[in-house]
UniProtKB/TrEMBL annotation:
This protein's name: Thymidylate kinase
Gene (name only): tmk
Domain Thymidylate kinase-like: 9-202
Binding site for ATP: G11, I12, D13, G14, A15, G16, K17, S18
Function recorded in the entry: Phosphorylation of dTMP to form dTDP in both de novo and salvage pathways of dTTP synthesis.
Organism in which the protein naturally occurs: Variovorax humicola
Amino acid sequence: MTRGLFITLEGIDGAGKSSHIDALEALFRERGRTVTRTREPGGTPLAETLRTLVLNESMDSLTESLLVFAARREHVLDVIEPALARGDVVLCDRFSDATFAYQGAGRGFDLGVLSTLEQWVQGGRSTRPETLLQPALTLWFDLPPEIAAARLAGARLPDKFEAQPVAFFQRVAKGYADRAAGAPRFARIDANQPREQVWQQIESKLRERGLA
Ligand SMILES: Nc1ncnc2c1ncn2[C@@H]1O[C@H](COP(=O)(O)OP(=O)(O)OP(=O)(O)O)[C@@H](O)[C@H]1O
Ligand SMILES: Cc1cn([C@H]2C[C@H](O)[C@@H](COP(=O)(O)O)O2)c(=O)[nH]c1=O
């Protein structure tokens, strides 16, 4: 059995990820692939319970980091790894890049500690970098924080993160840019375009990489 394809969608809140995930799923299904669609924090009953805490309760940044990685551990073991072993396309709305961007760059939490947690959660007990579970492709929706805030205003009640000031999202956006630099799995999508053009960029990134 050929191992599946792991694709993540990343970006600041309001960047437009969720608006394109249905079409992405449909595209792979039309090509005969089985799609497992999931999200972080979340994706299992326990991880969804942790999500509710993380998105709604105020907490220390180490506590927040431990909770998102605890949720991820459950998600990786129960959903992502089994789906990849079956050969599925796994479409995941956020993964560990979000932790480096939000807890690391946004909150200012220690990136070295996050890397250690990442190794534990996504690498089992091995310290070899090649054993770390990472997406094959990360679609990074890049949008200026002021525009994301304007898009979200009035769209829904803000959760704990969405209620953060623009300065927080400027740090998160830089966190994503730093993470993307030199990581070929990142495909930058200029999300400051009408929906149709954003979708065309997604299709073109998939084609360039021979994934669709
Ligand atoms: N290209 C676009 N142009 C204008 N508005 C858009 C565009 N894409 C999405 N939107 C709108 O912006 C808002 C945020 O979009 P969406 O929920 O897809 O973002 P998101 O990245 O999934 O956010 P979050 O991570 O906070 O869930 C929605 O109201 C959506 O309708
Ligand atoms: C995975 C992950 C997520 N977050 C934050 C980012 C968002 O504000 C929320 C998730 O909400 P969404 O509407 O599903 O995008 O959680 C985080 O801070 N750290 C993480 O690792």
